[in-house]
Amino acid sequence: MRSHPWIRFFFYTGYIFLYLPIALTILYSLNHSKTVVWSGLSLRWYQVLFQNHALWQSAMVSFKIGMVSATLAVILGTTCAHLWTKERCHHRLGMMAMTPLFIPEIIIGLSILLLFVWSENTFGWPPKGMWTVISAHTTLGAAYVTAIVRARLLHLDPTLSEAALDLGARPAKVFFLIQLPIIIPSIIASWLIAYIISFDDLILASFTSGPGITTLPLMIFSKIKVGYTPEINALATCITGIISLVIMTAGYTLYKKESQ
To answer: Fewest CB atoms less than 10 Å from the CB: which of 13, 94, 135, 175?
Structure first.
């Protein structure tokens, strides 16, 4: 059954709107000129990119913050989702954990900044730096993890856990040996989402980062404010290429498993 022409029109228009800017970014990363006026193919801006140590250092900072904050968010979010699903008395805890999903990010950043300023003035700790950014990103990432993992836990077959408990297994053993292997795909997906949110974040990092801690979004934003440079196009092309390679590898792996 063929779809309506208008449905196909909006479908292709939406995809063009999504992918045309990415294609233009890749194209202009190969432009010899510094302006948007096309002046010929060149790898000049890739050479400039690989010689920019400050930009790569900020990328490594974002990579480290994303890895740590996503891991902490998975631990906190999975624990909260498990307690919220298992016991009704943790309903308020679960709702509080998901509150950052409904609050504007700028309000969260301002609130966390005030908390850190008060804590530093009162106790002398923590100084603004990498761990303050990690704390802010963990808070936001844990909310997404809680929502994703809880949705998977709610669809688990309860008879599996009940049978294990009837046979004498402790609740912790039931979770780690029965429930955890089933929800591993949801945990991996939530980790990836928390990592992407952390790596891409600008607002929370701008409120909570300190001297010497500049994430990649902060570095890109500061460069864009000064003026346009194709060096950022080259960086975006590299990131897009890495992500596309990971997605294609994962898709090919899943295809091979399904075909066996």
So the answer is: 13
Residue 93 identity (one-letter amino acid): L
pLDDT recorded at residue 220: 86
In this structure, are residues 231 and 48 in contact, taking their beta carbons and an 8 Å threshold?
Answer: yes
The pair of three-digit structure tokens given for residue 56, joined into one six-digit string: 């790569």
Q: Which residues contact 129 (CB under 8 A, 6 or more apart)?
A: 209, 210, 212, 213
Q: Tokens for 258?
A: 């399904």
Q: Is omega for the bond preceding 126 within 30 degrees of 0, making it cis?
A: yes
pLDDT of residue 89: 53
Q: How far is CA 40 from CA 21, 28, 34, in A?
A: 19, 10, 11
- Give the per-residue pLDDT at 64: 93
**Cα separation, 254 vs 105, whole angstroms:** 35
State yes or no: pLDDT of 133 exceeds 70.
yes
User: Nearest Cα to 152, choosing from 190, 121, 116, 117?
Assistant: 190
Over residues 16-28, mean pLDDT = 88
- The structural domains of the chain, with segments of one domain joined by +, span 53-234
Task: Please state the CATH superfamily assignment of the domain spanning residues 53-234 in this structure.
Answer: MetI-like (1.10.3720.10)
193 pLDDT more than 70: yes
pTM (two decimals):
0.85
Residue 143 to residue 101: CA distance in whole angstroms: 6
| Measured distance CA(160)–CA(8) in Å, rounded | 44
Per the DSSP assignment, residues forming a β-bridge with 41 are 31
